């Protein structure tokens, strides 16, 4: 909140939260281009003019969502500890990312849709905080490789592979569930498979 700006009332806070929650549903389902302010307003239970009181445009809502979720989305990578056991740290990161795909599929699809469009509304975040964080954690993983604690492996592509192999289960949920069938727990099976895959990959 900027200097001189009044704090939001309880009703304003409630409406802002309702708008962002509705927008997350709409954007994750239809993407930015396929979503409209009318859809978001209807899902939030507000009129379009009322919605525009809080956010001046569809883009402003989208940016607010991405910015607000960035801290949560990056938390598992921040938690990777240079002083921890290398394989435990990497496997823990993989598990946390898979759990986020289970618990936060809309958020995963929101980020995926933005990146697929060239990140026009969030390139600064990728070039800034995300790149800085990945560079720092890649350096840690590279040091572990050089010390012989894990296999010699490109740290950036290791991180990319964890992203793709865990977020797949959120972004392509319908495809996964349709192919596996209703009686199988895709996330439990994925965790077992990915633990085997990465544990073997990381052996020096």
Tell me what the structure shows.
It is built from ten helices and no strands. The chain has 204 residues and is mainly alpha-helical. The protein folds into two domains: 56 residues, Homeodomain-like (Arc Repressor Mutant, subunit A, Orthogonal Bundle); 136 residues, Tetracycline Repressor, domain 2, CATH 1.10.357. The mean pLDDT is 93.
Summarize this entry quickly.
The protein is mostly helical.
Percent range for helical residues?
A: over 70%
Poorly predicted runs? none
**Structural class of the helix and strand makeup?**
mainly alpha
CATH class of the largest domain: Mainly Alpha
Main beta-sheet strand count, sense and barrel state? none
Mean pLDDT: 93
- Quote the distance from N terminus to C terminus: 50 Å
- Total strand segments: 0
CATH T-level topology of the largest domain: Tetracycline Repressor, domain 2
Corresponding CATH superfamily of the largest domain: Tetracycline Repressor, domain 2
Q: What distinguishing features does this structure have?
A:
204 residues; mainly alpha; Arc Repressor Mutant, subunit A; Tetracycline Repressor, domain 2; 10 helices; 0% strand
């Amino acid at each position: 909140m900027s200097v001189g700006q009044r704090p939001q009332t309880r009703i304003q806070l409630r409406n802002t939260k309702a708008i962002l929650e509705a927008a997350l549903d709409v954007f994750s389902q239809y993407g930015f281009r396929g979503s409209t302010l009318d859809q978001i307003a209807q899902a939030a239970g507000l009129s379009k003019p009322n919605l525009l009181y809080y956010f001046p445009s569809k883009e402003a809502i989208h940016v607010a969502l991405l910015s607000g979720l960035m801290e949560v989305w990056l938390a598992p990578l921040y938690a990777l500890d240079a002083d921890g056991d290398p394989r435990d740290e990497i496997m823990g990161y993989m598990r946390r990312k898979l759990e986020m795909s289970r618990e936060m599929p809309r958020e995963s699809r929101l980020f995926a849709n933005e990146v697929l469009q060239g990140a026009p509304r969030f390139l600064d975040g990728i070039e800034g905080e995300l790149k800085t964080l990945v560079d720092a954690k890649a350096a840690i993983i590279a040091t572990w490789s050089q010390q012989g604690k894990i296999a010699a492996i490109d740290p950036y592509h290791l991180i990319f592979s964890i992203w793709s192999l865990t977020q797949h289960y959120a972004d392509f949920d319908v495809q996964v569930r349709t192919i596996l069938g209703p009686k199988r727990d895709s996330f439990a099976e994925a965790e077992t498979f990915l633990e085997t895959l990465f544990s073997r990959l990381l052996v020096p």
